[in-house]
């Protein structure tokens, strides 16, 4: 159950303040009954809401992709006041939240959506969604280390599933691309630490069928329609109609109309003495 003005605003009807005004003016009905009570609780999934007799459509589904920089928390708000990924997103009417989590010191691909069913499926362990990371480690990743990653590594929360490993650079600092199918806490860092290879940088470059591509760090983009369909299909959901988020209109302050020139003051200054 949610407050009526919040449901209206999230459905893209108008700003929260304007929605309150619509309610106060008696223009909103819930199941055919006019509601003027502020904070009236509704179930948007089950109840019929209308403004001026026109049904309010359920919140459309939207998906955004962010190239997360390091030093941002993957949360909607942080009690310690640290910067969160939400501050990098545009203001939209839909309630977006991150699909899963990247560590504070991890960068790369992070999806945001308001589709709970999609999120649930993408994160469900039984789905084995592939995540690809580019990992920079201190030291060489020798054949034995690569084999252990490929076969599974014993961590304190159990054996990891086999990973696909590709060497990108071998040296005092090595770069590896690794594809995993699980989403345990700090999993990639712990896998390399177990091999005695501390992780210096970690970046996610793909999530299921979605690749980060050339998006700059700190920037976001919408999914392409083809990516949208591929993402839904990857978790056996019928893709809903492709939609862009609702960017709220900037409400301009009305300027008072200009009323011509100021009338001249009829004071005594400069008046010639007679
Ligand atoms: N694995 C990690 O160790 N950290 C992340 O942020 C993601 C995967």
From TrEMBL:
Coiled-coil stretches: none
Stretch forming the signal peptide: none
Database matches in InterPro entries: PsdUridine_s_RsuA/RluB/E/F_cat, PsdUridine_synth_cat_dom_sf, PsdUridine_synth_RsuA/RluA, PsdUridine_synth_RsuA/RluB/E/F, PsdUridine_synth_RsuA/RluB_CS, RsuA_PseudoU_synthase, S4_RNA-bd, S4_RNA-bd_sf
Pfam family membership, one: PseudoU_synth_2
Listed GO biological process terms: enzyme-directed rRNA pseudouridine synthesis
Domain of life: Bacteria
Keyword RNA-binding belongs to the record: yes
This enzyme's EC code(s): 5.4.99.-
Gene Ontology cellular-component terms listed: cytosol
Keywords: Isomerase, RNA-binding
GO molecular function, one term: rRNA pseudouridine synthase activity
Assigned protein family: Belongs to the pseudouridine synthase RsuA family.
Protein name according to UniProt: Pseudouridine synthase
